[in-house]
Task: inverse folding
């Protein structure tokens, strides 16, 4: 299957700092990428849709000023958690549709964020 | 928006038995239904998917069925093995848009 990478795989930071997470499609171009958050023993919840060349679309209840998304190129989307707090500690996963077939999505390996 | 319900939340079977996980969806426009397997701390892995123009799809020990009228779809795993133990998620989407996930099923296969 297609390859989606994510960096870093885990990060520990102090409360109040900002953390940037990168999501890359390695062997295909993705005009759209999706960012999910997964708390322990829970399902994946869509946070936002990242669109190359335009603003991200955020799901209800997700603060766009706190979770900054930038889709800089056809292979890279970044999620920045600004002024992180302990309640932001979670598993953040991106996904990208490959386009072949159009609906199939592959996930990055995820980033585990722990805010102290 | 779309809402996906998944049952059961936990499922324990004996090795060699079959496992069935069921999902229902609310948006009749949804036309793509993938199933993902997630092991602890890892990414969800696509194991099988089905599109709305098909009623059933099979890949070795895994099969998925879709009933568009009733808006439900199911995952069937036959001859379960301990390595099948994981959390399974169903999802639904329309035309390659974002996936809406079910709540997940923790499958435990006892040797």
Result:
């Amino acid at each position: 299957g297609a390859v989606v990478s994510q960096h870093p795989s885990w990060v520990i930071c102090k409360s109040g700092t900002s953390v940037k997470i990168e999501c890359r499609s390695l062997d295909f171009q993705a005009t759209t990428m999706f960012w999910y958050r997964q708390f322990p023993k829970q399902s994946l919840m869509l946070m936002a849709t990242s669109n190359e060349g335009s603003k991200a679309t955020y799901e209800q209840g997700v603060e766009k000023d706190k979770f900054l998304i930038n889709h800089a190129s056809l292979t890279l989307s970044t999620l920045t958690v600004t002024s992180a707090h302990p309640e932001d500690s979670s598993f953040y996963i991106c996904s990208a549709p490959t386009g072949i077939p159009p609906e199939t999505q592959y996930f990055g390996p995820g980033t585990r964020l722990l805010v102290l | 928006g779309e809402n996906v319900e998944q049952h059961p939340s936990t499922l324990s079977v004996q090795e060699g038995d079959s496992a069935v996980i069921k999902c229902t969806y609310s948006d009749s426009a949804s036309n793509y239904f993938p199933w993902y397997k997630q092991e602890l701390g890892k990414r969800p892995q696509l194991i099988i998917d089905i599109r709305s123009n098909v009623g059933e799809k099979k890949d070795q020990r895994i099969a998925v069925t879709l009933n568009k009228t009733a808006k439900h779809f199911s995952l069937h795993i036959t001859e379960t093995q301990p390595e099948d133990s994981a959390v399974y998620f169903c999802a639904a989407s329309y035309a390659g848009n974002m996936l809406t996930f079910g709540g997940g099923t923790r499958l435990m296969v006892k040797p």
About this structure: The CA atoms of residues 3 and 102 of chain B lie 8 Å apart. DSSP finds no helices and eleven strands in chain B. Chain B touches chain A at residues 32, 34, 36, 41-46, 49, 51, 89, 93, 95-96, 98-104 (CB under 8 Å). Chain B has a mean pLDDT of 95.
